[in-house]
Design brief:
2 domains; UDP N-Acetylglucosamine Acyltransferase, domain 1; Udp-n-acetylmuramoylalanyl-d-glutamate--2,6- Diaminopimelate Ligase, Chain: A, domain 1; flat; alpha/beta; 6 helices; 10-stranded parallel β-sheet
């Protein structure tokens, strides 16, 4: 796809700088890590500050930039010049929120519409299954799936097209794994869990909630264990990521674009909203909640039933409690004060 084709979908797009015909656009990526032959959206200062945060270079010679028109007008000439150096092309768009919905759809169609969800890939000889894998009766395995050595898949599991499951992993009964999910080695996924569903992402315009089409799937690294009836949503333009050695309990909701690093503990009924980053060795008590865009630094702990507000940064080693969550000692003092006051 070329920029001119994007303009047919959203006529508000206007080229500012660069050569839009220098590469074929194959998808959309996130501002944290602009990928080759894609473009990223830029709406405000928060996303400007995150540009390339997960890459070693701040130059993206085969990526384009779609920036909201009003925000482009607010930028200094120096920042504009830096962006022109970093990206192959830059174009403005009237509304990033609308653009995300309109422009993600054709890329989603390209990835998903031609997949075969109805005929087992084994019947078409279009799967790769190691001879040592044990697969029960009543399992569906979609085309393009890759099943590693000594994998066990139990009855009722649905492995949709383009899923990868690494060596020595176990998928328990009635698990559903959506397309473009990549599961590492020695992973255990317990009964009833669903991985890779569309993220719950909508923007409101035109008098209704419009869907952001999620393209990026889920990555689950080695030695992860996931309990029963847990839901892990696909990322929009960057994969939802579960880091090596992390353990996730029953009935947990992990939303789109969440990035969980290594050896994180998430206890039952916890809910983690979109675009949350959770660093190594963090832990969540049962029923905890985290608002969108929050960041937990290494070793942070969230007590049972505590709720971390949106975009909060929880410092390394801090234990948070209450709603809204605040440092444990502060929360305990406030509870003691309330008890004293209630006796008066």
């Amino acid at each position: 796809m070329k920029l001119e084709q994007l303009k047919q979908i959203d006529p508000s797009i206007a080229l500012i700088d660069g050569d839009p015909d220098s590469f074929e656009i194959v998808g959309i990526s996130h501002s944290d890590a602009p990928q080759k032959n894609t473009f990223v959206f830029l709406k405000n200062k928060r996303f400007l500050n995150s540009l390339g945060a997960k890459l070693s270079s701040k130059e993206f010679p085969t990526a384009g930039l779609l920036i909201e028109l009003v925000y482009w007008g607010e930028l200094s000439d120096e920042i504009k010049d830096n962006l022109k150096v970093s990206f192959t092309w830059i174009a403005t768009i009237q509304s990033v929120d609308e653009g995300m919905c309109l422009l993600s759809k054709p890329f989603h169609q390209k990835l998903f519409d031609d997949l075969n969800y109805f005929i087992d890939g084994r019947q078409m000889n279009e799967v790769s299954i190691d001879p040592s894998a044990q697969i029960a009766q009543g399992v569906f395995i979609g085309e393009g799936a890759i099943i590693g050595a000594d994998v066990t898949i139990m009855a009722g599991a649905v492995i949709m097209p383009k899923v990868t499951i690494g060596d020595n992993s176990t998928v328990f009964p009635n698990v559903t794994i959506y397309p473009y999910t990549a599961i590492g080695k020695r992973v255990r996924v317990h009964a009833g869990t669903v991985i890779g569903t569309d993220g719950f992402g909508y923007n409101f315009f035109g008098g209704k909630h419009q869907k952001i089409w999620h393209l990026a799937g889920v990555q689950i690294k080695d030695d992860v264990e996931i309990g029963c009836n847990t839901m892990i949503d696909a990322g929009a333009f960057t994969p939802t990521h579960i880091g090596a050695g992390s353990k996730i309990d029953n009935d947990v909701q992990i939303s789109h674009n969440v990035y969980i690093h290594e050896h994180v503990i998430v206890c039952g009924t916890t809910g983690i909203a979109g675009s949350v980053e959770i660093n190594n060795y963090c832990a969540f008590g049962a029923g905890a909640g985290v608002g969108p865009g929050a960041k937990l630094e290494q070793g942070a702990q969230i007590a049972a039933r505590a709720v971390v507000s949106a975009n909060t940064i929880v410092k390394s080693g801090t234990t948070m409690a209450g709603h809204p969550a605040r440092p444990l000692n502060e929360w305990m003092r406030s509870q003691a004060t309330l008890r004293r006051l209630s006796k008066k």
